[in-house]
Design brief:
This protein has 3 domains: 89 residues, no CATH class; 88 residues, no CATH class; 179 residues, no CATH class. By secondary structure, it is mainly α. The chain is 60% helix and 7% strand. The longest helix has 22 residues.
Length: 396
């Protein structure tokens, strides 16, 4: 029997690993016969899957397959991530920083608390009123909850606008479609379920009230010009036109995730500008949704540094041996979150699928922002091409 191609071997390793960890296979629309065969076979042990990934890496290094250099580099980085995932799931002790770096292509580090304290000072100046900063910020933030009966209309209004802007600026494949839905009991705030065929289901988590201050970013991140846009453009440009079937699977634990989250987080800024608040207000205020444009802009500018707190908390949990209570307290102290939102954040950081994933956001956004540097054509490269984090570092 002929040896399977490196691409088929990669798809098989990913699908087989996905049987060990729910959510590892984020999306698959590749060859049906591979998925059917893997689903029908006995579950392959994790140590054997680690060996499969190691052998595939060695074969790629030895020149297996008729692959152009950039495609080989991309595939090798993906397989290296899967190798670490298999070893970790099999119980091997891997230091958390190494796990993040070997899976996602960046080495994490803590943000100094002096930087976080400076962000607190800027927030204190930006927020109206007086009194302790945490209480002021929480009260101001929670005052922006979107009434549940207006949430769907707000999402649709934003999505229609962002879709038109994305199509005009980057182009969207004919026939693409996003369906929005609501879910509960999830560790994330939003999720793109890409189904292939240019279709996505975007779920919004309503465990906690959805805030108007984050709604525009959420729609841009999950749909236009974020995850849905990237998936559809790569399905047409890479899978259909160039038969690069490795793009038909999206796997947690690999560098493609870091770039996907970075470009999705950057999406609203690229699409609407560094200060999108006036545009967002045009959609929200006619629906009777509270949105304090000037203060939102000031708080967003002052508070962006606090997004990195999640990385500090991940290192606290997984490297320093901190407890869940320690993590919640750190988020309350430095992210200025109420306890229920801090608990939801820790749920994500301790989920087996997502424990190392947080640095796809913490490191992905600054990496992609530095690479794009205000140039929409560079953002289009993120939507269209197979790149790894080292490529962005080299080009920035």
């Amino acid at each position: 029997m002929d040896e399977a191609s490196p691409i088929d071997r990669y798809l098989e390793v990913g699908l087989r690993l996905g049987r060990h960890l729910d959510g590892l296979v984020d999306a698959y629309y590749g060859p049906d016969h591979l998925q059917t065969r893997v689903g029908a076979e006995p579950i392959r042990p994790l140590d054997a899957l680690a060996d499969d990934a190691r052998r595939l890496t060695a074969d790629l290094d030895a020149g297996a397959g008729d692959l152009e250099p950039q495609r080989r580099r991309w595939l090798r980085a993906q397989v290296a991530g899967l190798h670490v995932v298999a070893r970790k799931l099999d119980g091997e002790a891997i230091a958390y920083r190494d796990e993040v770096e070997w899976c996602y292509g960046v080495r994490p580090d803590k943000v100094p608390e002096d930087d976080l304290a400076a962000a607190h000072d800027h927030l204190a100046e930006a927020l109206p009123g007086s009194g302790p900063l945490p209480e002021r910020l929480i009260a101001w933030r929670e005052s922006h909850h979107v009434p549940p009966d207006r949430l769907e209309a707000a999402i649709r209004s934003l999505a229609d606008d962002f879709r038109e802007r994305t199509d005009r600026q980057f182009g969207l494949p004919e026939g693409e479609h996003v369906e929005f839905m609501f879910e509960t009991d999830k560790p994330w705030s939003g999720f793109n379920y890409y189904e292939g065929g240019l279709r996505s289901r975007v779920a919004i988590n309503i465990d906690l009230p959805v805030l108007s201050t984050s709604l525009g970013h959420l729609v841009a991140h999950e749909a236009y010009p974020g995850h849905h846009t990237e998936h559809t453009r790569k399905e047409v440009g890479l899978v259909r036109r160039r038969d690069q079937q490795e793009e038909s699977i999206f796997l947690v634990g690999t560098p493609q995730c870091l770039l996907a989250e970075g470009l999705a987080d950057l999406g609203l800024e690229v699409l609407v500008g560094e200060r999108p608040e006036p545009v967002l207000a045009e959609h929200l205020r006619p629906l009777g949704i509270h949105y304090d444009t000037e203060v939102v802009a000031a708080v967003s500018a002052a508070g962006e540094a606090l997004a990195a707190v999640r990385g500090n908390v991940a290192l606290l949990l997984h490297e320093d041996g901190g407890s869940t209570d320690d993590a919640i307290a750190y988020l309350e102290r430095w992210s200025l979150l109420p306890r229920n939102r801090a608990e939801k954040a820790v749920q994500f950081l301790t989920d087996p699928t997502w424990r190392a994933y947080i640095f796809c956001y913490v490191a992905g956004l600054p990496l992609c922002r530095s690479f794009v540097d205000g140039d929409p054509q560079r953002y289009a490269r993120l939507l269209n091409e197979q790149l790894i984090p080292a490529d962005l570092d080299a080009a920035a």
